[in-house]
Amino acid sequence: MIIDGTVAIVTGAAGGIGAALAQRLLEHGASVVVTDLDAARLDATAASLERVAPGRVAGLAGDCSVEADVQALIDLAQDRFGPVDLYAANAGVGLGQGLESSEDDWSTSIDVNVLAHVRAARLLTPGWLERGRGYFLSTASAAGLLTQIGSPTYSVTKHAAVAFAEWMSVTYGSRGIAVSCLCPMGVNTSMLNGGAGSDDETARLGARAVTEAGGVLEPLEVADIVIEAIGTEQFLVLPHAEVLEFYRRKGSDYDRWLAGMRRYQDTLA
Questions:
Q1: Burial 179-190, CB ≥16 within 10 A → b, else e
Q2: Residues 78 and 51: beta-carbon distance below 8 Å
Q3: Which residue has the higher pLDDT, 101 or 212?
Q4: 196 pLDDT tier (thresholds 50, 70, 90)
Q5: What gap in Å lies between CA 11 and CA 70, rounded to an integer?
Q6: Which fold has domain 7-241?
Q7: Sequential DSSP letters for the chain
Q8: How far apart are CA 126 and CA 103, in angstroms?
Q9: Is 87 one of the catalytic residues?
C-alpha cells in the first residue's frame, strides 16, 4: 500500500505505539483521525501531531469497542478527509492477573482487545469491498503467538486478535483488503511500565518476563517497522526478531516449549 494520500484512523493514539504510528503515517503523507478514551491526553497528542502535518489531523475521544463511537470516527474521517483507507486497531488493555481476574477484567479485555477489531471491520469492510481496497492493521502482541506469563486475559484475547486478523486476510485478502498483524514484545509504553511498577506481584512478574526475554523498543522504532510492513502488505509484523524463533520452537515441539516456559517462569519468581 502506498500511504501517501490515504486516510487512516488510529485507535489508542494518545500515546505509545498509537501516537507513534499516527506520526509516521502523517510523515508519509496520510491524513489521520486519532482516538483514545483519555480525552485530555488525546488533545495534547493531536496538537503535537498537528505541528507535524498541519490540516491533516483530527482527534475524537471515544471508546473503540463501542460501535457508535467507531462509526463517529469513520464519519469524521469522511467529512474531513475522505473515505477511510486504513484502520489501525491499536488500542488495548492489560487487565487481571491469574485466575483471580474478575468477570469485568475478562469482559473489558474481550471487548477492547478483540471485539473492537470485529466491530470496526464490520463497519468498514463493505465499503472497502465496494472500492476494491482497504487496509486493516491489528495491534496484537507477541503474547498472541506465544503466551504472556501472568495475565490470562491478555494472552487469550491477544491470541484471538491474531486469529481474527488471520481470518480477515484469508477471507478478504484476494478481494483488495490487506491485513497486517503487529506482534511486538517489549515496548516502552505506559502498559509495560505500569506492570513493572505495579503493587501486584503477578503483574511485575509478567513485565519482567517481557523485558528479560528481549530488548525494549521505543514506540517510534515499532512504528517505522509497521510502516515498512504496510508498504509491502506483510501480514505478520515482528519488531522483535527473536519472537519468530520462539514461535518456531513452539510449533516444532509444543511440550518442550511449555516445559521451557514453566522453567522460565520459575526463574522469574
A1: bbbbbbbbbbbe
A2: no
A3: 101
A4: low
A5: 9
A6: Rossmann fold (3.40.50)
A7: ---TT-EEEESS-SSHHHHHHHHHHHHTT-EEEE--S-HHHHHHHHHHHHHHSTTSEEE----TTSHHHHHHHHHHHHHHT-S--EEEE--------GGG--HHHHHHHHIIIIIHHHHHHHHHHHHHHHHT-EEEEEE--GGGTS--SS-HHHHHHHHHHHHHHHHHHHHHGGGTEEEEEE--S-BSSHHHHHHHT-S-HHHHHHHHHHHTTSPPBPHHHHHHHHHHHHHHT-SEE-SSHHHHHHHHHHHH-HHHHHHHHHHHHHHH-
A8: 33
A9: no
Query: Which value, in Å, is the radius of gyration of the alpha carbons in the chain?
Result: 18
The one catalytic residue among 154, 172, 247, 264: 154
Task: Summarize pLDDT for 27-60 with one digit per residue, the tens.
Answer: 999 999 999 999 999 999 999 999 999 999 999 9
Amino acid occupying residue 27: E
